[in-house]
C-alpha cells in the first residue's frame, strides 16, 4: 500500500468541485498492473461523470485515459511486465500519480512514441479508428460530414477519412478552427455558428447529400446531420458536446431516405484484447510513422485541471488536452 496525488470529485458539480487529494493505492491485485502515470487525457466523459450524468458514487478519482510505465504487477499478469511502456483508454480513476489498472486493458506504447502523445491518442484515437473502420467503414469516394472537426476526435476523423480516400465536409465554430480542419484535409468548410449546415452539405455534393455524418456535438447538430444524408446514409451520433439528442420519432428515418442512426460507444468496440490491440497498435503506428498527426492543444498540472475542463466545455480548445500528474 502506498499513497498518491489524485484528481478527485468530492461531490458532483461544475469544474470548481475538482480537488487534488492524497489517496491510498493498494498493491496491484490479481490481473492488475500498477502504472506510474506520465500524462492523463482530458475527455468529455470525465465531464459527464463529474456532473453526475454518468453516476459514480462520490468521492471518486477522475480520468479514463493516460500513459506511463508499469512499476508493479499483481498475481497472474502476463500481458505486461515491470518496465513496460503502456497506455489505456477506458479505465476509470487514473488521473493520478499512480494507478492500478487491469493489465488486459493496457496497450504497448512503441519505443520512440512520447508518453504525452500516447496519452493524448489512446481514447480519441481508438474512437476515431472504430468510427471509420467499424461503425461506418469508410470507402474511397465516400463523402463524410464531420462536426467539431478541429476538436480532439474531429481532427483525427478528418485525417483517417481522407487517408481512406474519403472526402470530408467539416463544421466548426469559427474560421480559425475551420482552418485547422482544412489543413488536415477537409475539402468543404462550414461555420455552423452562422451557416445552414444541411444546405451547405447538399451544395457541396451536387444536391445528393453525404454517405455518413459523424456527429459528436449532438443536440445542436443532429437535425442538420440527418438532413444532410443521401438516401440510405447514416448518422453516427457518438456524443453530445452540446447536450443529448431528445427522443426521436423513427418515422423520421423514412423521411430522411431510409436513413440509419447509430449511437456507438468505445467500450462496445473494444470487446476483446485482440480488438483493443488492433485499434491501439494501428493508431500508435500511424502516429509513430507520421501518417497521423495529433495536436496537443494544452497541458495543465493536476492542480489546474479545472482550467483544462473549462477550456473543453467552453469551446475554447482545439486538439487534445492533457494533465500531468
Ligand atoms: P472536442 O475537442 O471535440 O470538444 C468539443 C467541441 O464540440 C468543442 O470544441 C466545440 O467545437 C464543439 N461544441 C459544439 N457545441 C458545443 C457546446 N455547446 N459545448 C461544448 N462544445 C461544443 O471534444 P472531444 O474530442 O473530447 O469529444 C468530442 C465528442 O466525442 C464528445 O461529444 C464526446 O463525448 C464524444 N466521444 C465519444 C466517444 C464514443 O465512443 N462514443 C469516445 C470519445 C469521445 P466548436 O467550437 O468547433 O463548435
From TrEMBL:
A Pfam family reported for this protein in Swiss-Prot or TrEMBL: ADH_zinc_N
GO molecular function, one term: mRNA 3'-UTR AU-rich region binding
Keyword list, A-Z: NADP, Oxidoreductase
EC number: 1.6.5.5
Residues covered by the Enoyl reductase (ER) domain: 13-323
Any one GO cellular component localisation term in the record: cytosol
Key word Amino-acid biosynthesis present: no
Domain of life (superkingdom): Bacteria
Keyword rRNA processing: no
Name under which the protein is recorded: Quinone oxidoreductase
Organism name: Nostocoides australiense Ben110
Amino acid at each position: 500500500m502506498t499513497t498518491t496525488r489524485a484528481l478527485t470529485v468530492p461531490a458532483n458539480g461544475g469544474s470548481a468541485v475538482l480537488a487534488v487529494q492524497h489517496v491510498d493505492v493498494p498493491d496491484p491485485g490479481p490481473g492488475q498492473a500498477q502504472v506510474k502515470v506520465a500524462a492523463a487525457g482530458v475527455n468529455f466523459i470525465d465531464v459527464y461523470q463529474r456532473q453526475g450524468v454518468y453516476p459514480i458514487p462520490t468521492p471518486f478519482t477522475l480520468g479514463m485515459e493516460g500513459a506511463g510505465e508499469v512499476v508493479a504487477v499483481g498475481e497472474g499478469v502476463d500481458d505486461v511486465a515491470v518496465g513496460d511502456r503502456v497506455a489505456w483508454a477506458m479505465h476509470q480513476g487514473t488521473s493520478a500519480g499512480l494507478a492500478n489498472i487491469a493489465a488486459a486493458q493496457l496497450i504497448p506504447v512503441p519505443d520512440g512514441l512520447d508518453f504525452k502523445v500516447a496519452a493524448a491518442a489512446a481514447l480519441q484515437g481508438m474512437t476515431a479508428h472504430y468510427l471509420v473502420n467499424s461503425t461506418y467503414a469508410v470507402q474511397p469516394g465516400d463523402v463524410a460530414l464531420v462536426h467539431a472537426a478541429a476538436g480532439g476526435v474531429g481532427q483525427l476523423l478528418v485525417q483517417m477519412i481522407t487517408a481512406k480516400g474519403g472526402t470530408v465536409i467539416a463544421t466548426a465554430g469559427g474560421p480559425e478552427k475551420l482552418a485547422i480542419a482544412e489543413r488536415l484535409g477537409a475539402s468543404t468548410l462550414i461555420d455552423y455558428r452562422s451557416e445552414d449546415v444541411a444546405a451547405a452539405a447538399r451544395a457541396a455534393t451536387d444536391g445528393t447529400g453525404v454517405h455518413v455524418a459523424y456527429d459528436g456535438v449532438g443536440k445542436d447538430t443532429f437535425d442538420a446531420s440527418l438532413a444532410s444524408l443521401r438516401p440510405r446514409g447514416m448518422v453516427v451520433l457518438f456524443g453530445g458536446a452540446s447536450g443529448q439528442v431528445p427522443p426521436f420519432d423513427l418515422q423520421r428515418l423514412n423521411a430522411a431516405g431510409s436513413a440509419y442512426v447509430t449511437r456507438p460507444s468505445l467500450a462496445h468496440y473494444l470487446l476483446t484484447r485482440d480488438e483493443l490491440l488492433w485499434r491501439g497498435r494501428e493508431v500508435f503506428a500511424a502516429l509513430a510513422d507520421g501518417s497521423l498527426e495529433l495536436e496537443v492543444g494544452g497541458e495543465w498540472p493536476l492542480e489546474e485541471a479545472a482550467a483544462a475542463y473549462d477550456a473543453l466545455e467552453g469551446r475554447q480548445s482545439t486538439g487534445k488536452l492533457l494533465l500531468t500528474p
